[in-house]
Automatic annotation (TrEMBL):
Function according to Swiss-Prot or TrEMBL: Cell wall formation.
Pfam families: FAD_binding_4, MurB_C
Enzyme Commission identifier(s): 1.3.1.98
Keyword RNA-binding: no
Gene that specifies this protein: murB
Pathway the protein acts in: Cell wall biogenesis; peptidoglycan biosynthesis
Protein name: UDP-N-acetylenolpyruvoylglucosamine reductase
Family listed: Belongs to the MurB family.
Length: 305
């Protein structure tokens, strides 16, 4: 019996209601629409099930991979020898004194709408980010001048043994696309608390609609992608450097540097992980050679050598 079969056996005994799938295609679970099968994937619906999944992995010596909306992820074509825990079933949100407390799997778009519904301002920037709350905390996601660090007050996480901890946001070491959780991949952001301000619902809605229109006009939302492909290099903008090097429209297989926004690598149809990696390597090499600036992927990779 291999290790993943052993994890499954433990979970079928300890938490029989937990949905498990073997050889689940990761392309179904990433916004790039790319990626081969994961050996084992769990779909917990509540805190009890996700704790059971984390404990079973720890018991068998497996470090699970936590998957939110798959919006910042590139998975190998051959698939991954991994136990993937998808957090989308944990999506509840509640309000206590202008603080929203939400579970990790809620999409940021829904979270922003929940704030709007309560007349709370501060999350408008998150409305068009295609990720989940858990991933947004891990990566300190941001857009249009807003970042999670600006609203986050506390985080509840599970350590590798399934024990629950709540810490103030100040202890999460939130910097540009980084947090303490990027340094501890076996820890799962379970819930987050955000402090917002009372605002005017119509003004909040108008700001969200304005940002949505700006995204639609500038970003290639009609194609699968993982959002901004590269991190912002100090003193520069990745998209400007890529465009400066004449790389808009550069294509490898089904992958292309968007002609609409050079900061996006898109899947024009049938792109493989290999296509995307070859293209991003060409971008990095060209930009370094012509500008002296080293670009770093913002997109996380899984199973890619």
């Amino acid at each position: 019996m291999d290790i993943f079969s052993a994890v499954r056996m433990v979970l079928e005994r300890e938490c029989p209601e937990l949905e498990l799938r073997t050889e689940e295609p990761m392309a179904r679970h990433t916004t790039f629409r790319v990626g081969g099968p994961a050996r084992l994937m769990a779909f917990p619906k509540d805190k009890k099930e996700i704790k059971a999944a984390v404990r079973a992995a720890d018991q068998m010596g497996v470090v699970p991979f936590f998957l939110g909306n798959g919006s910042n992820l590139l998975v190998a074509d051959k698939g991954v020898e991994a136990f993937v825990i998808k957090t989308g079933g944990l999506d509840q949100v509640r309000e206590v004194n202008r603080r929203l407390r939400a579970e990790c799997g809620i999409p940021l778009s829904r979270l922003a709408m929940a704030a709007l519904g309560r007349g709370l301002t501060g999350l408008e920037f998150a409305h068009g980010i295609p990720g989940s709350l858990g991933g947004a905390v891990v990566m300190n996601a941001g857009a249009y001048g807003g970042e999670m660090v600006q609203v986050l007050t506390a985080v509840t996480y599970l350590d590798e043994t399934g024990q629950e901890h709540t810490v103030p946001a100040e202890q999460c070491q939130l910097t540009y696309r980084h947090s303490v959780f990027t340094d501890h991949p076996a820890w799962l952001v379970l819930e987050a608390e955000m402090e917002l301000e009372q605002g005017d619902a119509e003004e909040i809605r108008a700001k969200m609609e304005d940002l949505a229109q700006r995204r639609k006009s500038k970003q290639p939302l009609e194609y699968p992608s993982a959002g901004s492909t590269f991190k912002r290099p100090a003193g520069h903008f990745a998209a400007a450097l890529i465009e400066q090097c004449g790389l808009k429209g550069l294509t490898v297989g089904g992958a292309q540097v968007s002609e609409k926004h050079a900061g996006f690598v898109i899947n024009r149809g049938g792109a493989t992980c290999a296509d995307i990696l070859k293209l991003t390597d060409q971008i990095k090499e060209t930009v370094l050679r012509e500008t002296g600036v080293a670009l770093e992927l913002e997109v996380r990779t899984l199973g890619c050598v």
